[in-house]
Amino acid sequence: MLNDRKRKILQIIIEDYIETAEPVGSRTIARKHNLGLSPATIRNEMSDLELLGYLEQPHTSAGRVPSAQAYRLYVDSMVDSMKEEPGVLTENDRALINSWYKERIRNMDDIFKSTAKILSRMTQNVSLVLANKKSTARFKYLKFLPLSDTQAIMCIVTDDGAMDNGLIDIPAGMSSAEMDYLSGKMSNLLEGRRLTEITGDLLQEVYSAVSEDEVMLASLKKAISNIAAKNSEQKVFLGGAKQLLNQPEFQDVGRVKNLLGILEEEKVVKDILNAGDDSGLKVTIGSENKFTGIKDCSMVQATYRLNGQIVGTMAVLGPTRMEYRKVIAVMNYLHKYLETILKDPK
């Protein structure tokens, strides 16, 4: 258990190191911070913190740097209380986020692209956004194109501009005019629904209002189910990979190449983001990360929901010397903002 003085000194070292990326010495602490302690007293406290595993000494420096254990204590006991402090996220920050979305959103993909970009811009780290297309795409309209006397191609267009099609059975001799009437009526009744909502029961209710042919209904159910399954693939959006080059920790070319290689592997990124839980905002530090390639990084991660269901994940990846207070404040605000937009992207 750390006493108040040790906690204060450790907090100062962590925040100074986050700001400067330079090892912190006792004289610097005494000069910059009004603790009422001599450099010798601070040095003794730092020695104790090092023995307890909270500080480490780089080979070429007389100063100390925080360990992963120190960052964990900082995140658990300090950032939680700091994230709601006025000034962590300024009014200008909020205004930037609001205008960023309003100027860029035309479809669902734009929402996630914008989230990745603004998240990276505001945190100066790499951002990762995982979206479940099936959970977010909204039905726009459908069209039937006759193929033969008993078959047609059904085309479904969603609000993100994507089009999918499937083969369906139709009543023998059904005319193009009848198909247009049926597709128009169904489109009017289903427009704005998410693909996840167009279940067998809803489809049957809508279809039964305009037709009684059971063969075509069964065929429609199967085709729409196949389209929904195809659209269930998760999609990854990245932002700010070049931000790595601005971090002192990533001046080593080999280290940067390794991390960029991981970020280029979409399956690996999906695995990383899917490995988190749904307990809200989560911070993993250094070796706490399960994936070897990011064990010297920190990741702040949060799931976002629609109608109570998890539909994706957003995360910030950077050095353990991350500005946790700012990152968590941005993540919390964006998380709430994103969930609001997803309910009504217009």
Describe this structure in words.
With 346 residues, the protein is of the alpha+beta class. The protein folds into three domains: 4-66, Arc Repressor Mutant, subunit A (Orthogonal Bundle), CATH 1.10.10; 82-133 and 234-343, Beta-Lactamase (2-Layer Sandwich); 138-231, Enolase-like, domain 1 (2-Layer Sandwich). The protein contains 13 helices and ten strands. The strands form three sheets. A five-stranded antiparallel β-sheet has the order 7-3-10-9-8, sandwiched between helices. Strand 5 (151-158) and strand 6 (163-169) form a beta hairpin. The radius of gyration is 27 Å and the shape is elongated. The two termini are 52 Å apart. The model has no long low-confidence stretch (mean pLDDT 85).
User: What low-confidence regions span 5 or more consecutive residues with pLDDT below 50?
Assistant: none
Distance between the termini: 52 Å
Element string (H = helix, E = strand)? HHHEEHHHEHEEEHHHEHHEEEH
Dominant shape: elongated
Q: Report the total helices.
A: 13
The CATH superfamily of the largest domain is GAF domain
Helix amount: 40-55%
Compute the number of strand runs.
10
Biggest sheet: strand arrangement: 7-3-10-9-8
Whole-number tally of structural domains: 3
